[in-house]
Amino acid sequence: MTVTDSPFLKACRREPVPHTPVWFMRQAGRSLPEYRKAREGIAMLDSCTRPELVTEITLQPVRRHGVDAAILFSDIVVPLKAIGVDLDIKPGVGPVIAEPIRTRADLARLRPLDPADVSYVAEAVRGTVAELGDVPLIGFAGAPFTLASYLVEGGPSRNHEHTKAMMYGAPELWAELVDRLAGIAAAFLSVQIESGVSAVQLFDSWAGALAPADYRRAVLPASAKVFSAVAHHGVPRIHFGVGTGELLGLLGEAGADVVGVDWRVPLDEAARRVGPGKALQGNLDPAVLFAPTAAVQEQADEVLAAARDLPGHVFNLGHGVLPDTDPDALTRLVAHVHERTAG
Ligand code: CP3
Could you identify the atom of ligand 1 that is nearest to the CA of residue 320? Predict the structure, then answer.
């Protein structure tokens, strides 16, 4: 087997697979004791600048769970930090921005990303791909809306009020902001693709806060720009958001090859909403992993049953692995999905 004909890439291309491929969003880090040990005394964003550490953390879930793809250990705010935005990741909180972006003058702080700004990411990708062998590596970036929310709010936000105030009240400023972020996301993905990742995922974690008409008008053009900027590389492009049941068609329209689905919409219904020509990724509720094994398997079987007629299905959770998840439950789940779908 080569990376190109790995089950994960085949499923992304909607080709027949020997078994349904599995990986987990936020599989690197979080619940693994070996991750906590590797990270001891090293701040999150510093750890992303150390290629050997990135490779080690990226490989940990592959070794432990036998997942069908690795995701690069990094963060959606790495390219923002790299262009000089004063930000930090606070444990248990998330990204915090020292001076939020609220005015036209603030936009000057968002200069384009130069590949040299993230040379450590390129180095980490090359080293990780060399170690992974036949297992594909997924690169990623934050989508313009989700990055904009952190920048405008100054940190994690429940209601995205400042973000939406700009979106509705200063549409031209907003359009310029998300356009700049699209350029940064596209450049960050391009660095990863040129260094050897086999697929990319655009995380629009907070897009579910938007009504479809607003998403279409104020956000979709920027995300579409990211997808079209990397289209010529020919690697599968995954588009993921949370609470996006009403946006699934638009997430596909933005240009992705694979649409990620959270746990709120069954995959057969999601396929109808997304329309033909796309693979789907998802969508077990991450909280299910706290239930006994038999219940986890029952819920996983429901996901597989809903995905039975899809031409391409990548099994994943509906959102990231929760920090207190028992790692053994993840290992058992990978084995279960492989067994159930083999042959
Ligand atoms: O998926 C993976 O395992 C690869 C690595 C990865 C991280 N962040 C590492 C990380 C990926 C793909 C991300 C993406 C990311 N970062 C998203 C989109 C995905 C999603 O879950 O919706 C978002 C919104 C962020 C921003 C961010 N960074 C948050 C909300 C947090 C959590 C803060 C906390 O401590 O609860 C981070 C920090 C972060 N990024 C951690 C990891 C492993 C935890 C930091 C630590 O272990 O100290």
Answer: 21
- Nearest residue to 130 (alpha-carbon basis) of 55, 193, 201: 55
Residue to mutate (ligand 1; options 22, 30, 35, 44; most atoms within 8 A of CB): 44
Q: Would you call the peptide bond into 283 cis, given omega within 30 degrees of 0 as the criterion? A: yes
Q: Which helix (H) or strand (E) holds 238?
A: strand 237-241
Sign of CA pseudo-dihedral 333, 282, 190, 16 = positive
pLDDT for position 343: 76
27 ligand 1 Cβ < 6 A: yes
Residue matched to tokens 């004791």: 33
CA 121 to chain centre: 16
Structure-block tokens of residue 217: 């008008």
138 CB within 6 A, ligand 1: no
Within a 13 Å sphere around the CA of 215, how many CA atoms are in the beta-carbon half?
25
- Structure-derived torsion over alpha carbons of residues 204, 220, 188, 312, reported in degrees to the nearest 10: 70
Position 1 scores a pLDDT of 80
Query: For 44-64, b where at least 16 C-beta lie within 10 A, e where not — what string?
Result: bbebbbbbebbbbbbbbbbeb
| Residue 330, amino acid | L
Collapsing DSSP states into helix, strand and coil, what is residue 97?
strand
Least confident range of 29-43, 53-67, 167-181: 29-43
Check whether 108 has a pLDDT greater than 80: yes
Q: Is the CB of 320 under 6 A from ligand 1?
A: yes
Nearest residue (by CA) to ligand 1, atom 8, is 75
Please tell me the pTM assigned to this model: 0.97
Give every strand in the sheet of 137-142, ordered side by side: 70-71, 137-142, 199-204, 237-241, 258-260, 279-284, 313-317
Closest CA to 315 of 343, 276, 341, 278: 341
In this structure, the residue with its CA closest to atom 35 of ligand 1 is 92
- Beta carbons within 10 angstroms of residue 107's beta carbon: 15
**Residues 145/178, Cβ–Cβ less than 8 Å:** yes
